[in-house]
């Protein structure tokens, strides 16, 4: 003990322990998590050495807050990459250290607890050197030491520009370096815009290749499909790499066989290996699938929510089209419906029946925070199909699982068989869907039903190129002998609605875009995606463009979109890069030119049972007002009416707001009592001095009874604008649903 105390009192102990905290621990983290890339090590050394020269010999009260924040950044990065396969942004730091989110999404703890322990220990040792050596001045660093961070960061920049890597961002950067590079990139882009200000940015982008309906291909079937019904099975977060036929077709080096049973089913159907997911988030994936249009290629208001303000474009969506042609249309998911307003969006796009977690009466096998576990879900879904079979009308059924969402719960025997809970959850889903498909075959459903199995988004795979955009489409059709086992060409979620209407030889509205999976095309096609913070565009002529957070674009020679490898051709910024962004912006505005002056109504006459206590801000939300966009300089008005349904029971209501999951204070009471005789009626507003994206309202309640949220309207407008004539809550609810 005396030896350790003596060492900590030495003049250079403070420097050595600070090096351990700022450089050794991050390098060990990168090595332990398999994020090995020379540029990543260079990034850690560059930022670590920069903090070292800035904080060494500084007062403890000045250095300590910076080091604590830096430690939280490291923990947040490891947690978010472990959970969803992406590097966080600044707002995610609040999200990931939120105790409630940690409890719900990580099962009550960190995915990498050793990292937090190592950082804390290193910080305490550094503090001990300060205390024990307080009477001994720390020696100065040589002046040339200040050049080390600069040389390291310049070296990183030079390597990325001379021979850029398309590896995952967390392999190439740590978070402070990424934010620094993004800021430099933004300044550079603005300078380029100023230098090139000759009017060329006013030229509209070419959009026909991304938005047109293309039915010029040769049909695979000589006659309309024989199926009477159609079923779309949407698996939460599953990437295309989990299907063996896809890995083989694209010569993928990823060989982990997590879904062998679904892969065997894929051998009996038509697979589309080069299948693109256009964005993250379930509601965006469902919109693209069912409505034949790209959802927002950023964090703006989901188009499904925007569509609630319209009464024409929704009629072109697949459920509405099939309903108009005599199908009974049904939507069933294993989670609650109100979050992300699916209780309103699904009926609005044409589903006759929309059901969620509350429909299921069969017991669950797991206590899963987000909803029904996959085995129990598919058992309930099988009963639902049995009810549909008794009907005389043909039917469409869309299913959505939730079991492969973090925290990736699975039964104990699965957790024992797999290395991680995520793998165990995928294995549990594989067994569940295999049993479901086998039961459908045994009951004869596959003989008269077109079954499409796909995913809403991809939870990514560490180290697999473009895994966040890699989806899958497995089609099981009665006339399987006429269809290829591997469908060549590039397709994506925007093609699904067109493909199903084409299968039945039904008229396809011009409002839909994309191609039909049931046709062969002689030429390539344009397609886009926005995942993991990267905007990607394939021109259909052998070039994939990848634009990163620095607003720099790189071209790769790639016949298709999804590929295990691609040859780097060059990089650029300026006008060409802005044209890629302009295409994405034009797609974002396919429904609404502006988010201003849209009257969103999230209330309804539905009776909502309350829980005895609030467990989670996300799962317990009573309304679907999530991920809204509010432009800079605008003004937002909110009106709500909540009443208790039971005269004998009081309800207690809280209203929270979050922007990118970070709490935003609205100055509202922490808790509001509501009775049947005294409903809660509120009308408030707030300014938006800066643009807001991913702005969510969380209306929470607890008690022994139930409530009715008859009105929850949100309007964002220009300040000083005359207030429009108010609709009644009933009229507005009817308009929105």
What structural category arises from helix and sheet content? alpha+beta
Tell me the name of the CATH homologous superfamily of the largest domain.
Answer: Alkaline Phosphatase, subunit A
How many β-strand stretches? 29
CATH C-level label of the largest domain:
Alpha Beta
Q: Characterize the overall form.
A: globular
Assign the CATH architecture of the largest domain: 3-Layer(aba) Sandwich
Computed Rg: 27 Å
Supply the number of structural domains.
3
Biggest sheet details: 7 strands, mixed
Provide a count of the helices.
Answer: 23
Distance linking N and C termini: 71 Å
Low-confidence stretches: 93-97, 100-108, 724-737
Which percent range fits the helix content? 25-40%
Widest sheet: strand order?
4-11-9-3-8-6-7
- Overall residue-averaged pLDDT value: 87
Strand content: 15-25%
CATH fold label of the largest domain: Alkaline Phosphatase, subunit A
């Amino acid at each position: 003990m005396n030896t350790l105390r003596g060492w900590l009192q030495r003049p250079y102990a403070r420097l050595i322990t600070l090096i351990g905290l700022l450089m050794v621990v991050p390098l060990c983290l990168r090595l332990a998590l398999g994020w090995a890339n020379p540029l990543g090590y260079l990034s850690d050394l560059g930022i670590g050495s920069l903090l070292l020269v800035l904080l060494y010999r500084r007062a403890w009260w000045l250095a300590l807050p910076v080091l604590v924040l830096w430690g939280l950044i490291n923990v947040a990065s490891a947690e978010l990459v472990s959970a969803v396969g992406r590097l966080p942004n600044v707002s995610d730091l609040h999200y990931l250290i939120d105790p409630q989110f940690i409890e719900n999404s990580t099962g009550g703890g960190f995915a990498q607890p050793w990292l937090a322990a190592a950082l804390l220990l290193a910080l305490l040792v550094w503090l001990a050197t300060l205390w024990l050596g307080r009477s001994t001045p720390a020696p100065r660093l040589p002046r040339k030491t200040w050049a080390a961070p600069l040389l390291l960061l310049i070296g990183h920049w030079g390597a990325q520009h001379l021979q850029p890597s398309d590896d995952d961002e967390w392999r190439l950067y740590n978070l402070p370096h990424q934010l620094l590079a993004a800021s430099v990139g933004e300044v550079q882009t603005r300078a380029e815009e100023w230098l090139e200000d000759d009017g060329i940015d006013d030229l509209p982008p070419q959009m026909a290749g991304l938005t047109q309906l293309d039915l010029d291909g040769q049909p695979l079937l000589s006659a309309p499909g024989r199926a009477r019904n159609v079923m779309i099975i949407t698996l939460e977060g599953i990437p295309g790499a989990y299907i063996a036929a896809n890995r083989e077709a694209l010569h993928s080096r990823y060989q982990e066989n997590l879904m062998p049973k679904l892969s065997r089913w894929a051998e009996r159907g038509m697979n589309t290996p080069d299948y693109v997911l256009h964005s993250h988030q379930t509601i965006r994936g469902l919109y693209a699938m069912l409505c034949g249009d790209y959802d927002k290629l950023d964090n703006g208001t989901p188009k499904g929510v925007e569509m609630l303000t319209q009464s024409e474009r929704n009629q072109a969506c697949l459920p509405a089209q099939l309903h108009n042609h005599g199908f009974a249309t049904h939507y069933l998911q294993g989670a609650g419906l109100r979050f992300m307003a699916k209780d309103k969006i699904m009926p609005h796009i044409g589903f006759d029946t929309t059901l969620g977690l509350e429909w299921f009466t069969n017991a669950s096998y797991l206590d899963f925070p987000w909803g029904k576990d996959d085995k129990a879900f598919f058992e309930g879904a099988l009963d639902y199909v049995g009810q549909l079979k008794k009907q005389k009308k043909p039917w469409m059924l869309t299913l959505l699982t939730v079991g492969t969402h973090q925290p990736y719960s699975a039964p104990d025997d699965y957790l024992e068989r797999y290395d991680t809970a995520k793998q165990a959850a995928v294995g549990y889903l594989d067994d569940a869907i295999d049993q479901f498909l086998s039961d459908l075959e045994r009951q004869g459903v596959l003989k008269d039903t077109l079954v499409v199995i796909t995913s809403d988004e991809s939870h990514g795979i560490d180290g697999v190129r473009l895994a966040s955009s890699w989806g899958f489409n497995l089609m099981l059709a009665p006339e399987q002998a006429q269809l290829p086992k591997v469908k060549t060409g590039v397709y994506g979620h925007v093609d699904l609605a067109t493909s199903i209407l084409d299968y039945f030889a039904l008229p396809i509205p011009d409002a839909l875009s994309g191609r039909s999976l049931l046709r062969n095309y002689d030429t390539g096609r344009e397609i886009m995606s926005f995942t993991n913070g990267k905007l990607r565009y394939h021109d259909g002529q052998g070039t994939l463009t990848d634009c990163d957070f620095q607003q720099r674009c790189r071209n790769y020679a790639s016949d298709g979109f999804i590929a295990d490898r691609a040859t780097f051709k060059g990089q650029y910024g300026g006008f060409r890069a802005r044209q890629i962004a302009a295409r994405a912006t034009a797609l974002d505005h396919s429904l609404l030119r502006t988010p201003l002056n849209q009257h969103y109504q999230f209330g309804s006459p539905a009776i909502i049972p309350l829980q005895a206590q609030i467990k989670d801000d996300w799962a317990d939300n009573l309304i679907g007002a999530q991920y809204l966009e509010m432009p800079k300089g605008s003004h937002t008005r909110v009106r709500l009416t909540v009443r208790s349904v039971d005269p004998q029971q009081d309800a207690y209501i809280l209203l929270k707001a979050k922007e990118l999951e970070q709490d935003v204070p609205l100055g509202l009471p922490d808790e509001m009592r509501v009775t049947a005789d005294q409903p809660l009626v509120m009308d408030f507003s707030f300014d938006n001095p800066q643009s807001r994206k991913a702005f969510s309202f969380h209306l929470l309640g607890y008690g022994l009874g139930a409530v009715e949220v008859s009105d929850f309207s949100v309007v964002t407008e220009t300040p000083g604008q005359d207030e429009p004539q108010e609709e009644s809550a009933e009229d507005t609810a009817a308009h929105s649903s």
